[in-house]
Amino acid sequence: MTATAVSVPRSVVLDGSVELGKDLLGGKAWGIVRMRRAGLPVPPAFALPVPECAHYHQAGRCLDDGAWAAVREGMAELERATGKRFGDPSAPLLVSVRSGAAVSMPGMMDTVLDLGITDEVERALAAATGDPDFARDTHARFCAQFGRIVLGADIDPAAPAASAAQVRAAVEEDCGDTVPGDPWEQLRRAICAVFESWGSRRAVAYRKHWGISDLGGTAVTVQAMVFGNLGENSGTGVLFTRDPLTGAPEPYGEWLPGGQGEDVVSGTHAVLSLADLARDLPDVHQQLVDVGRRLEAEHGDLQDVEFTVEQGRLYLLQTRAAKRSPAAAVRTAVELVEEGVITPTMALGRVTPEQVASVLRPCLAPGATDDAELLASGEPACPGVAGGIAVSDPDEADALAAEGQDVVLVRPTTSPEDVAGMIAARAVVTELGGATSHAAVVTRALGRPSVVGVGPDTVAAWLGREVTVDASSGRVYAGRLRTEEVAVDSDPHLVQLLAWARDTAPVTVTTGDTAADVVDLDAAGVGLDPERPPADDELDAALAGAVAARGAVLNTATGAAAALRAGVTTVVALPSQPELVLLMRFLAAPRTDD
């Protein structure tokens, strides 16, 4: 890891005056700046920019004197903005410490909430709010999360009435380390844990899958806490400005009264819908929907907005481009053009070849479920159909997939540690969680069919059996069911995307040998061995002077780039290569004139 050459402050107060971009601030902090610039209700925050991750590692995996001075300066700004003081029971300031890389990696790195609480602060919060249960719950939550995230303790979820002392004892018994009673030591160790999580197994696996560089690192955002667990009319939730499953242009999300943000994304709590928020807190709901419209218009894309309501007051914690299903990616891109928000060229850049291929994957054939055994029903999290052997262990899923077997990962719920198994699986099913849980967000990013919330103690009976996941309906069936092909003309959004792609792509795709002198890469044996992808010089030699070409390797980033370098203008599609997928592949490839 190397530090960027750009000179940036070692800490940045996240107000509307900040000019640094997402590459330096990280996505989370950059979103906060834009929301605060727009005058939206966002708790004050500061960030240690992305280069500080490199500084941390270069300093021997610790915060050097300059970094710690920057943290102190940032905390002083939070104290001025809130009128509270960190570690002072008379006016306690609690903060969250969160990761935030330049490229969104949802759930892959660490977060610690409620930091700064101590036994004395707990007593002060109980007295100030008149709610001892809130103070106890907040302290116990912090000890459990700090123990798991920072100290690496493997502890069971705390009982609803657990005290901080009980949680601390469980942490110490498991890992031999203690949760610090000094708020500043809590803060130092939490920041270090966030920087360390950049190199965690789950984060590395996620970056490898998406081709994200391991260089750079993550920023750290420190933000004043607001409390969704503070009495009545409080809670937390996630708003999507459009449906991330289908792309339908209507608000979508989940709401958890009396909770904090990690309760929703962990998938361990039963959540409600935004309709419940509209019923119970109609003014807050309307404000949230209005804010969502503003954020989508400003960012020009479907937004994922994390929010907290504290005693009837709405606060926004984060906004980012939402992870969406492949079908939603296609529909959203097309409809944003129709609404005049983006151009057709921008729309083509918003959809990947893999997403188009996923939308065109086979669906269940008519009548396939008539005699099928229905194993469970849940909530669709990412549409699609896939089948395989049910496996509960992510490492086993990874190993079996490497042997060429189709597997379906079935879990009570997923955590960031499961991401390698989720990447390997054809589909994912969880017993708990909703449409904004970790499993739902990550599978949408991966384009994996997934069903969540099928019910406790459900999936163990499936292990070792073949199952089919129909994630469009939220059902799981025994056995492998019949499927049928999906045509582009079955979806008007795909039809429009194809028209734009034909007008824009640097090649023409045909389906027959109508072009003269077609170079057949398959016949030449170039690119047929998946264990040995062809080198650039091998492809360049095979395609030298070609105007038209055919071959499996042309539906890869490497093959498409080589064809463009060679001056290929016509691609003859194989039966397994839909025209739209090939066109999108060539649109995504770097061009020689770029």
Automatic annotation (TrEMBL):
Signal in keyword set: no
Keyword Ligase tagged: no
Domain Pyruvate phosphate dikinase AMP/ATP-binding: 70-268, 286-335
PEP-utilising enzyme mobile domain sequence ranges: 405-474
Keyword annotations from UniProtKB, A to Z: Pyruvate
Top-level taxon in the UniProt lineage: Bacteria
Record PROSITE patterns: PEP_ENZYMES_PHOS_SITE (PS00370)
Record InterPro entries: ATP_grasp_subdomain_1 (IPR013815), PEP-util_enz_mobile_dom (IPR008279), PEP_util_AS (IPR018274), Phosphohistidine_dom_sf (IPR036637), PPDK_AMP/ATP-bd (IPR002192), Pyruvate_phosphate_dikinase (IPR010121)
Protein name from the UniProt record: Pyruvate, phosphate dikinase
Lineage: Bacteria, Bacillati, Actinomycetota, Actinomycetes, Geodermatophilales
